[in-house]
Amino acid sequence: MAVRVKGWSGRSGLAKVDLYTRGTLYLIVWAAVLGLALLLMALPVREDWQLVLVGTASLLAVAEGLLCGKLARHAMDAYLGQGQVPRKLLLWAAGATVAEASAVTVLAAAVDEGGLLPTMLAAALVPFLIVHCLLVRNRTTVLVQAAVLAVVCALVALTGRPADEVLVALVSVGFLTGWMAFTARASMWMLAVMWELRSARDVQARLAVAEERLRFGRDLHDVLGRNLAVIALKSELAVQLARRGRTEAVDQMTEVQRIAQESQREVRDVVRGYREADLQVELEGARGVLAAAGIDCAVESSGAELPGDVQSALGWVVREATTNVLRHGDARRCTISVNAADGTVVLVVENDGADGAAGTDGSSPGSGLAGLRERLSAVSGTLDAAPSAGGRFRLTARVPLGQGIRRDIKEAV
C-alpha cells in the first residue's frame, strides 16, 4: 500500500521546524564525513600501504557517519522525551570515532602531513560530539570537550609537530567542535520549547472544553438537585399515606407530577442554551476559546437584527467552525465576520492552519459540516468550505433574509 509523504507546504509550522532541525543535524554529520573523505584524498600518498591506510580511514569515516546518523535520530528523540538511546549503539559510535581519529593521526604521521591533521581530527570528532552533547548535561559536555582537546594536543605532539602547530590545533579543533556542539544543543532546545508550547496549547483547549462540561453539569445539578430531592420525599410520603389508606396520598402524587413537569421544562431550558445557539454569544465564545488555545481571533459583526432561527443556525456554524479550527491544522490566526446586505446575511470564518485534514470539507460521512448544511437548509441557507490562497481555509455561510431587516452597522465586536 502506497504511503503519501507530506510535502513542505502541507506540514504545520511545528512540523517544519522539527524537520528543519533534524535535517540540520544530519547534514552536519554527513558534511563532516564528506569533508574528511576529501581531506584523505588530498593527502600525498606515495606507497601502496599508505593507499591501503587511506582506504581504511575512508571506510571508517563512512561507518562512523552511519552509526552517528542513527545515534543522532535516537538522541534527538531522547532529548524531546520521545524515546531512549540504545547503549550498544552509543558504544559502537564512540568506538568508530576513536578508531577514525587514531587512523587519521597515523596516516598524517606516515605521509608527513601534519598541517592537515587538526582539520581532519575535527572532522572525525564532530559527528559524535554533536550527538553526544544531546545526551548529557552542559557541564558534562564542557568536560568532554576539554578532554578531547587534551587528547588532540597529545596526538598532534606525537607526530613531531612544533608547539605553535599544537596551539593552532588546539584553537581550531576546540572552536569547530565546540561551536558545532553548541549549535546542535541550542537547536534542539528551541525545538523542545516549541513542543512544550504546542502541548500547553492543547492542554488549554482541553481545559476550555472541560470547563464548558463542568458548567453544563453544574446547571443541570442546580436545576434537578432540589426538585429530585422533593420528588423523592413526596413519593415516600405518598407511599406511607397510601399504605394507611389516607386520601392525602393522591394530593402528594399530584404534587410530584407537577414538580416532575416543572423539572422537564427547566431541563429543556438548560439544554436549549446548547441546542439553540445565540450568534453573539457564540462569537464571543469562539474568540475566548481560540484565545485560550493561543490563536489570535478577530471578530467583526454588522449587528443586524436577525430572526431567531437564523441566529441559531449561524451560531451553530460558528461553534462547529471553531471546533474544526482547534481540531484540524495548526492555525495561528482566525477571522470571523458577519455582514448583512442586499437581503442576505453572510458569515465567513477563515484561518491560516489549513492542512487538508479529513472531514474539513464536509464530504466524509458523519461530518460536522454536513450537519451544518442540513441546519442551514432549514432557513434556505448554503454553506461552502474549501482551502483558499496562502494555505488558508475559508468557510462561508449565506442565509437569505426577509425585507425590513435593520442593518445598523455597529463597530467590530
Order of helices and strands: HHHHHHHHEHEEHEE
Largest sheet: 5 strands, mixed
End-to-end gap = 50 Å
The number of helices is 10
Task: Spell out the blueprint of helices and strands.
Layout: H1 13-41, H2 48-79, H3 87-110, H4 117-132, H5 138-158, H6 163-243, H7 248-275, H8 279-292, E1 296-301, H9 308-327, E2 333-341, E3 344-351, H10 368-377, E4 382-388, E5 392-400
Parallel strand pairs: 1-2
Antiparallel strand pairs: 2-3, 3-5, 4-5
Keywords:
413 residues; alpha+beta; Single alpha-helices involved in coiled-coils or other helix-helix interfaces; Heat Shock Protein 90; 3 domains; elongated; disordered C terminus
What does this entry show, briefly?
With 413 residues, the protein is an alpha+beta fold.
Write structural notes for this entry.
This protein is of the alpha+beta class. The chain has 3 domains: 13-201, no CATH class; 208-275, Up-down Bundle (Single alpha-helices involved in coiled-coils or other helix-helix interfaces), CATH 1.20.5; 279-400, 2-Layer Sandwich (Heat Shock Protein 90). 67% of the residues lie in helices and 9% in strands. It has helices at residues 13-41, 48-79, 87-110, 117-132, 138-158, 163-243, 248-275, 279-292, 308-327, 368-377, and strands at 296-301, 333-341, 344-351, 382-388, 392-400. It has a 5-stranded mixed sheet with strand order 1-2-3-5-4. The longest helix has 81 residues, at 163-243. The protein is elongated, with a radius of gyration of 35 Å.
